[in-house]
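Contributing new complexes? Match this layout with uridine-5'-diphosphate.
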Amino acid sequence: MIAYDYLIVGSGLFGAVFAHEAHRHGKRCLVIEKRGHTGGNIYCQEVADIQVHLYGAHIFHTNNREVWDYVNRFVSFNRYTNSPLAYHHGKLYNLPFNMNTFYQLWGVHTPSQAQAKLEEQRGAYRHIEHPANLEEQALKLCGDDIYQRLIKGYTEKQWGRPATELPAFIIRRLPFRFTFDNNYFNALYQGIPAGGYNRLIDALLEGIEVRTDTDYFDDRAHWDTVAHKVLFTGCLDQYFHYEHGALDYRSLRFEHRHLTDTDNFQGNAVVNYTEREVPYTRIVEHKHFEFGTQPSTVITYEYPDNYSRGKEAYYPVNDEANNRLCARYKEMAAQLPDVLFGGRLAQYAYTDMDDAVASALKLWRSQT
Ligand code: FAD
Ligand code: UDP
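Output block (do not edit by hand):
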């Protein structure tokens, strides 16, 4: 007997929103999750009264009023505004590139001075008409100072390749802001859920049957029989047995440290390390997401890592070859009317949390 209307594979934000909507509309749902906890990459672990973002810093930001109202129904958000710093050879620079950054780089005080300096920096690369790689593209957009200090090392670490071997399309555009404004995200709404992201996930999954430590692929034949429909939010290529080949990803490695000898390690939630020689890309100090006053602190070193099967697939590598391969898998997916595919892994796309919520709501509406 088929016991459920929907089997939802994966309890990340996408799966949780879809499950919530289906359950609310009277559908019988079962969520299975291969990790030992729900929430996917937004999961937080409480350490010394601090919400630690175990899988990387997560700041909710959106221009979508419907999505903002939706998540606020489950949890309240604080007023956190992301304003990361970049560390390079002993100096700190504000991000995103704005008047504070230009002042720190060149000592310029006004927008017109900053524009003139930027034009001068770009001047040396004006002859590049069709940038052949990321390095040429970046130099054409911002010149040497910004590229060498704030982009090159970070990007090469992140993607594991020299910038001259990375495609130009990764940075077709570099936003420059000619105001003294360190708000990283240009979003109308921004914040961190009070008490951490687990509250959001727990509220979404309330009343729904969830089995953690349960990998769909360990008993696929069984799981395919328990529900009328499956929502799959895992890796698309794995679903199709890597039939046409494996999709590429970048992975990450996180090193978490609880420091008991200080209550404030770096004075900011996120500091990027833009030198190639420093092996990590950033240090996150979690308490600052919630303006914490705890007596100790927890920091996380984030190291980019090559991906191989068994590791977490954090970033899709959306170059032409992978996008072509992904399109073939998506054609196969479209042939399966009783299997829905959603979320960042099944879409093979970098999606922010607000995209995950919006597209899960859209998918649910397509079912009704
Ligand atoms: P996931 O969270 O990955 O959930 C998928 C779930 O499916 C996982 O729990 C996984 O274990 C499970 N699963 C997979 N395969 C199986 C299987 N075979 N059987 C059972 N379960 C399975 N977004 C923002 O808006 N702001 C940010 O600041 C931000 N920072 C980020 C930082 C990093 C380092 C990364 C990697 C992402 C960041 N994001 C951010 C994006 C955000 O993480 C995603 O938008 C969101 O987590 C997507 O949710 P999801 O459900 O699609 O995927
Ligand atoms: N980036 C950079 N220097 C920085 C931060 C980011 O050059 O200090 C570039 C880098 O290529 C990176 C991209 O911008 O891959 C996006 O970085 P961001 O931190 O905005 O996104 P995330 O890695 O968190 O998804």
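Reviewers usually confirm one structural detail per submission. For this one: The mean pLDDT is 97.
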